[in-house]
Write a structure and sequence with these properties.
The chain has one domain. The radius of gyration is 27 Å and the shape is elongated. By secondary structure, it is α+β, with helices and mostly antiparallel strands. It starts with a strand and ends in a 25-residue tail after the last helix. Helix content is about 40%, strand content about 15%.
Length: about 110
Amino acid sequence: MRASVHIKLPLLGKNKEQFNKIADKYDVQIRGIHGEHTETDDGIFDISNKRRLGRSEKDLVQDMYNGVKAMIKAEQELQALAAPIAPEAPEAPAAPEEPVAPETVAA
C-alpha cells in the first residue's frame, strides 16, 4: 500500500540534509509533486511511505504520519529562526498620577 500527502515545506526543502535525515528516520520518501525523480520549485513535496509490503496498513500510514509531523515541526523551527526579530517597543510613558482627594470625615 502507498499512502501520500502533498505538503508545502519551502525552508526544509532547501535543507536537503535535514530533510533526508527525517525521511530516513521515518521510512518515508520525498518526491516532487509530479512523481518520482521530479524536483520542485514551489516547495511542495509528495511524502509517501517507503515500505509497502509485509506491514499492516495502520503501520504504513503511521510511518507517514510520524514523518510528516516531524517535517512540519522542523519547518516551523526553521521559520522561527528565519523570522526577523522585532525591535522592542518603547515603553509607553507613565500616566500622570491623579491627585488624591483628602478624605472627608462626616460630623
